[in-house]
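Q: What would this chain look like folded?
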Amino acid sequence: MSQITSSTSEKIILGIDPGTRFLGYGLIKITKEKVTILQYGVLNLTKYTTQGAKFLKIHERVLGILEEFLPDEIAIESPFFGKNVQSMLKLGRVQGMVMSLAFSKGIPISEYEPKKIKQSVTGNGNSSKEQVAKMVEIIGNIKLDAKLFDATDALGIAICHHFHNNNLTSTLKGTKKGWGAFVNENPLRVK
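A: My prediction, written as C-alpha cells:
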C-alpha cells in the first residue's frame, strides 16, 4: 500500500475510539479538502465475559476493517489519566492491539488526546459527545445515528487527524490557510 500525500486526490483515514466495553470506529475519505464518511460503527463487547474473548473480537473486527478499506493512516485516542488503574490497563491493551495491527500492515498511526480531538472538531476542548457528533455531521455533510457516540467520537478522531496532519483546521471557514499560517501572521496573538 502506498502512502498518499496531501497533494494527491484521495486518502482514507481510520479513527478508533478504543474501549473494553464499546469500541468505536469511523472511516473517512479525504478527496482534496472534502471529507466523506465511508463507514462507522460500534463494536459492542459487553456480551463477552472474558478479556480474551473481547480481545479476539476486537482483533477480528479491526483486521477486517484494515483489509476491506486499506486505510492510508490510522488515528486513535491516546490514553488519559483515570482513577481506575485496572480500567486504564485494559484500555492500554486495546490501544496496543490496534497499534500492533496497524504496524503489521505498514499503516502509520497517530494518537490524540481527548481534549485535542474535541478542540479540533468543535473548537472547544470541553465539548460534549453530542457537540462532537453534531460537528462531525456538519463536516461530513451527513446525518449520523447520534446514539452511536463511540462511533461519532471515532469519526471525530479521524477528522482531527486530517486537520492536524494537513494543517487544514481553517478549511471550514473557506480559507486554505491553517493554524501555522495564523501563528506566523499573528505572533502577538499566540502565547
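The mean pLDDT is 84.
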